[in-house]
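Researcher: I'd like a structural prediction for the single chain below. Treat it as a standalone chain; there are no partners to consider.
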Amino acid sequence: MDCCAPTTEIADGSLNLGAAFRKAPLDPKLREMVILRVAALSRSAYERMQHIGIAHSVGVTDTDVAALESGRYNELTTQETAVLRFVDELVDTPKATTTRDAVIRALGEQGMAIVTLLVGHYMMTARFLETLDIEIDAVPTNWRQT
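Model: Treating it as a single chain, here is the predicted structure.
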């Protein structure tokens, strides 16, 4: 056995954290926009493929996707723009300072904490997938059946 191979417990823990975000008090549309923005910034085709269908199912439009993938937020709501700028700063630096107050106004402190954890989780996931050259699945995982 490889000394550094991920264990079932670690993989299960990561998947459980990802599943917990579906139960968090964060608008599902906003959650998926955050995940897709992290995927775009991380250049993770796998994350995008897994979440684009979910995003569409919770109200993310093709126009929203184009905006968040390009970083041009002028067609998004004030709340979405504040959150996505916060995501941009978190991906760039470990401590968001210039966008912090705007995201607190948009979501409150609990919402900011949830988005921070969401960004961190999907950054970690993107780095894992990309570093290990995980091949893109033929179809997205049906998370309702797992």
